[in-house]
Amino acid sequence: MTRAANPLIEPGKAYRTRDLAAWGANPARLAKRMVQTGQLVPLIRGLYMRPVASRFGQAPASDQELLHAFLDRAPFIFTGPERWNALGLGTTAIFAHSLVYNTKRSGLFKLGRRSFLLRRTAFPENPPREWFVVDLLEHADEANASRSDLAAALGEALGRGSFNADVLASMLDRYASKGTKTLVKPLLSRTQE
């Protein structure tokens, strides 16, 4: 099969074997042939990507695209140190793997050269910054942060208006453990005084 025979296989996209059924009666054989001709790169069993040609060589599909295909279009959200550190609450955590919450799988998965730590848990569809605050407080140990230090920094941030107290209260009610609620609710009370 030549590259021109599959114009719908887009560069920068990830595909499951069954996605290739639109172009052939035997998608597994088609995938094998496309790997042999360099049109697809295998990531894990049943998952492939079409790299993007760049001036530096073949560039992989984005993390979003890989997980979109890997999780079968199920919802997911990236969280962890990159998002926690951006909150300005004093964390400087680093993980070796991208932390991803989703509704389908849990475990450590290597997709090509990238690894993702997937956790099956509840999360909002479009999480506000305040949700990431709750997530950080719930995982303070993983961020190598003291919950009391985070609470103090959050109190100062709420005083400056860095976070919306009403949205934070809503995220606490829906996603926080009892311990996190006990830690943060007094801070919210002070903000409303």
Strand order of the largest sheet: 6-7-9-8
Percent strand: 15-25%
The CA-CA distance between the termini, in Å, is 70 Å
Would you identify the regions where 5 or more consecutive residues have pLDDT less than 50? 1-5
Radius of gyration: 21 Å
* Average of per-residue pLDDT values: 90
Q: What fraction, in percent, of the residue positions are helical?
A: 25-40%
What's the story with the biggest beta sheet? 4 strands, mixed
Task: Label the overall shape.
Answer: elongated
Structural class determined from secondary elements: alpha+beta
The total number of structural domains is 2
Number of strands: 9
- Per DSSP, the total helix count is 7
Order of helices and strands: EHEEEEHEHEEEHHHH
Structure description:
The chain is α+β, with helices and mostly antiparallel strands. It has two domains: 3-66, Arc Repressor Mutant, subunit A, CATH 1.10.10; 73-191, no CATH class. Helix content is 37%, strand content 19%. It has seven helices and nine strands. The strands form three sheets. It has a four-stranded mixed β-sheet. β2 (41-44) and β3 (47-49) form a beta hairpin. α6 (165-175) packs antiparallel against α7 (178-191). The chain starts with 13 loop residues before the first strand and ends with a helix. The model is unreliable at 1-5 (pLDDT under 50).
